[in-house]
Amino acid sequence: MDDIHPIYIPRGYMIYTMPAERYLNYIIDGIRGDNHGEFADGVGRIGKTLIAAYLAKHFSLWLQQVGGGVATRLIVPSTTRRSDGAFFATVGGGLQLDANTKPSDKRKKDRIVNYILNRCGAAGTHLLVMFVDNAQNITRKELDYLIDLDDEIEEHGVRLFLAFIRQSDTDGLSMSQSFSNFPSHITGRWNMDSSSHVMTGLIGLSDATHALRRYHTEAFWREKCFVEYFAPSAVKAGWTMDSDAPLIMEVVQELRSKAGLDPGGDWPMKTFTSTVKYLLTEVAARDPSFRGFKREHIKAALKASGYLKLELVHAGVVPEVTA
User: Fold this and answer.
1) Can you tell me the distance from the alpha carbon of 123 to that of 68, in angstroms, rounded to the nearest whole number?
2) 124 and 252 housed in the same domain
3) pLDDT of 100-132, one tens digit each?
4) One domain, residues 154 and 45
């Protein structure tokens, strides 16, 4: 795998985006507001998992804003869980807490408590942020199990902050709507109200320009940024990928308008990263005289990424195109 450029590996690299920054600030506000957690909604393939993975990996860069902390990530599977033992076994598995023997139900919970306390102790902090991805798979009863876990952690002088991330288009409801009838001990603990954050893709030219610039400043392989690796002559001549952002967004907006979609809609990271990959590997890398993208290049990249098909699905329209 060391000989394969990260752009060819699924989730082989991560970049910091403005949607990630907006979500980061939302989490920071929740921590400062003494909440035990916050909820966020977002449609499928918008980039929720990438944001959570990035923030969990680079926690030291942003948790210093609240005095320090550590972070981890849990992906909740869709399998049926009925007891606290089954739930904590799932959580332990998601956190990769292996057991040599089959633990008792209490031991399953204790392993998670010990993991949190040990992570915080090793880092000399009293805060652990756990990103809970696919939170729509958590049942009402399992929220009570998490309350028990939260209470026990708090007894040890450590704070657990649960950052729930839910895919909202599984049932058409926002997180606050889904949990609107829950009792106050749940809504008060995790601030499940109308202030829940909506996670988006890239919004407008400024977000797209910022993301494209990261391929120069953050995405590196073998001491070269991604853009220089695939377009060395163009970079040497002074070209930067983000300089083509206005043209790229113009083509995107034209495509959306022709399909009857809002031209100002946000751009999901799934098709954004696929478009960038195509532009770098299939256009820039194949033309020694390359100096910048043309309209036809961008159209081909958007088609190859499946951009319009995904946008039509997000809009509730059955796609009739292959783009």
Assistant:
1) 9
2) no
3) 666 777 889 999 999 999 999 999 999 999 999
4) yes
